[in-house]
Design brief:
about 675 residues, alpha/beta, eight-stranded antiparallel sheet, 17 helices
Length: about 675
């Protein structure tokens, strides 16, 4: 960060740059040397060391380690369009905005002090206009240096700050909008400069052999406008498929953007792109395997629970997310869903909850309702927080709206396991669930695993308050309140979900990051010294774009070689679980009644389920009084988790941010992938 602060200053330009170029821009790296050392190497080192730290943290079994930053995580601002922003986020956002303003002001100060006239007879005002347009591009480039970190799902950097890819996705959105706006000003500024000021519009189509490519920047900007327009919130929610496919233009945008900024500036954004490509290739390798689907539960409210076989060595935290691909529904689309199982309670199974809300999920529901005894599916993940610090609270209040109850199911199952396996006191749980109608109550059937009816819930202090908002009286029971359970036959090609890099995945990821980047540096040094430098030493021109192509090729090749080598090594060590799957001798389809209105309505076969039904109160025709519920919690440390509509999350955040109850510690869970 210190280097980013110093970069636009006169000290860096006039004093540091000559010395840095003299010492670091050797015959092995040429103009990339200084930026590789200052911008690329430190972040790659942090990423590699972060893997070691996360491995040690995982070994110490600190899933529910207590967070020491509760006050800083308290909501500091709840305001559209930023949403819920805590003190830490607000501080870093202010620092980043200050960095952009500082950089822009210093760039202009230095530039205006030494204006360069690019055409004969150019006015000072025109030169200054060009300088402003150019520096706006520089500031957009700063955003791109951090743009790819939030979307690197298996990142080793995000967990160091207590973040997951899901929770930090909003940072990607913020950076994307800011950079797109700056690049739009940059592009429009140069169009005005070339068209109306200097009459040099032909420069827009120039692909220089000795410097940057202008036409590559034009292509990148046009594609960026398409992606930007389709990623606006209203477009994304109403036409998700258009957003999904248009967003894949990022590959072409990044490709042409590199030719526009050049090799030296490429090194500033290299770590984010390098780690993103590495993560993307690992995800591709994991998704090549077909996952073994054990069963499905179809609820009357058109919610699905899919249960997959998993490697017992795969461990994940509560509130994790799994990406699912079903080729028979769509060959290209992947969708994230909440994991509702606990890796400790269900050691060989992993379950996700899916609510029918779009064309993709409706097609999946239709297929699961058919008579087919097998469903071909691939998965990526699961991805989740490095620790579940909220499990160490004295009490937990979990507030959900509709399908927002899904992540809380995994928390409850994790607490059931914690109470069963240790002598520690588990948190008291108050679950507040708001549903539209009575059929949504069947979501509560997912609180318990399908395959285990012998759970000991004696240590579980659970109070469930459900609110049916669109029905004012208790309806009559009917045949529709039934849950359909279907078992699927095993196929030899299917295999349990497992860590793509095995049990010591963080150590292996650190190995890949370190080895691939070192390999990249060595090969780049070799190519530069023995292929590029001799040409330039003879006074000949080595095509500038070829240097970019070398960087792209070497980065991709090194990632491919290092990742493939570790992946193949791990495949040899991990037994072929897929071939050891045995048939499950269970009925193909079963129907079971579900009633959460009163335990006396029917005989409940499962004692754990009977205990949950007795803990449940159903309120008709009303909404939860969230302020009263939260202020009634008198424990010294109350973890407040909310997942549901934006209005609900914002209301809870404002209550916790008011400071009227110091014992409330807020955490929001959102589905904004």
């Amino acid at each position: 960060m210190f280097i980013w602060v110093m970069l636009p200053t006169k000290t860096y330009k006039n004093s540091w740059t000559p010395e840095l170029n003299k010492k670091l821009n050797s015959t092995y790296f040429r103009e990339q040397g200084a930026n590789l050392v200052l911008f690329s190497f430190p972040l790659m080192l942090i990423a590699a060391l972060g893997c070691v730290y996360l491995h040690l943290q995982k070994k110490s079994n600190s899933k529910s380690s207590k967070s020491h930053y509760g006050t800083l995580r308290r909501p500091a601002m709840v305001m559209a369009p930023l949403g819920i922003v805590n003190a830490v986020e607000l501080t870093f956002a202010a620092m980043f905005v200050a960095l952009m303003i500082w950089s822009f002001a210093n760039y202009l100060y230095i530039s205006f002090g030494h204006l360069h006239m690019h055409t004969e007879g150019e006015k000072v005002s025109e030169a200054k206009f060009r300088s402003v347009s150019l520096r706006l591009g520089y500031i957009g480039h700063i955003c791109w240096a951090f743009l790819f970190f939030p979307v690197t799902r298996g990142s080793s950097i995000l967990p160091l700050f207590g973040l997951t890819s899901e929770s930090s996705f909003k940072y990607h959105i913020w950076l994307g909008h800011i950079s797109n706006f700056l690049f739009a000003l940059h592009s429009v500024g140069f169009i005005i400069y070339w068209w109306s000021m200097t009459n040099q519009m032909y420069l827009m189509l120039e692909w220089s052999a000795t410097y940057l490519s202008n036409v590559a920047g034009v292509i990148a900007f046009v594609l960026l406008l398409v992606m930007w327009a389709t990623s606006l919130d209203r477009v994304r929610r109403k036409m998700f498929e258009l957003f999904f496919y248009a967003h894949h233009l990022y590959t072409l945008i990044v490709f042409f953007y590199m030719f526009h900024v050049g090799v030296a500036y490429l090194c500033m954004i290299l770590p984010g792109i390098f780690l993103f490509l590495l993560d993307r290739y690992l995800r591709f390798l994991q998704s090549r395997k077909r996952s073994r689907l054990l069963s499905s539960r179809l609820l009357p409210n058109r919610t699905m629970e899919l249960t997959f076989a998993k490697n017992p060595g795969l461990s994940y935290t509560a509130t994790s997310t799994l990406f699912l691909h079903v080729p028979s529904v769509c060959r290209l689309q992947w969708h994230p869903f909440t994991v509702i199982s606990s890796s400790d309670l269900e050691t060989d199974k992993l379950s996700i909850a899916i609510k029918c809300q779009g064309s993709w999920t409706q097609k999946l529901y239709k297929q699961l309702s058919s008579s087919s005894d097998h469903l071909e599916a691939s998965t990526e993940g699961p991805y989740g927080p490095a620790s579940s610090h909220f499990l160490s609270r004295e009490s937990l209040v979990m507030i959900s709206g509709g399908s927002g109850i899904s992540p809380f199911i995994s928390i409850i199952r994790e607490i059931i396991h914690k109470g069963r396996e240790s002598n520690e006191k588990v948190p008291k749980i108050v679950l507040v669930a708001a549903f539209k109608n009575t059929t949504d109550l069947t979501m509560l059937d997912l609180l318990l695993p399908l395959f285990d009816n012998s759970l000991d819930l004696s240590k579980l202090e659970l109070q469930i308050e459900t609110y049916i908002t669109q029905e004012h009286e208790r309806p009559l029971e009917d045949a529709t309140s039934r849950i359909e359970t279907k078992m699927f036959k095993p196929y030899p090609a299917d295999s349990p979900i497992s860590d793509v890099l095995g049990a010591n995945n963080w150590l292996w990821l650190g190995t890949i990051i370190a080895s691939s980047f070192v390999m990249f540096l060595l090969l780049l040094a070799f190519i530069t010294r023995y292929h590029i430098y001799p040409v330039e030493k003879r006074g000949e021109n080595y095509h500038y774009s070829y240097k970019i192509l070398w960087d792209i090729f070497l980065a991709c090749a090194c990632i491919f070689v290092a990742t493939s080598a570790v992946f193949m090594w791990q495949r040899r060590r991990i037994p072929a679980e897929g071939k050891q799957i045995q048939n499950v001798d269970l009925p193909t389809s079963t129907m079971s009644p579900s009633s959460w209105l009163s335990v006396s309505d029917r005989e409940v076969e499962s004692l754990p389920q009977q205990s949950l039904v007795q803990s449940t109160k159903v309120h008709f025709g009303s909404r939860p009084d969230l302020k009263r519920i939260l202020f009634d919690c008198k424990e010294s440390e109350v973890g407040v988790l909310v997942c549901g509509p934006k209005s609900m999350r914002h209301e809870v955040a404002k209550i916790c941010a008011s400071g009227l109850a110091k014992n409330l510690h807020f955490e929001s869970i959102s589905f904004n992938w």
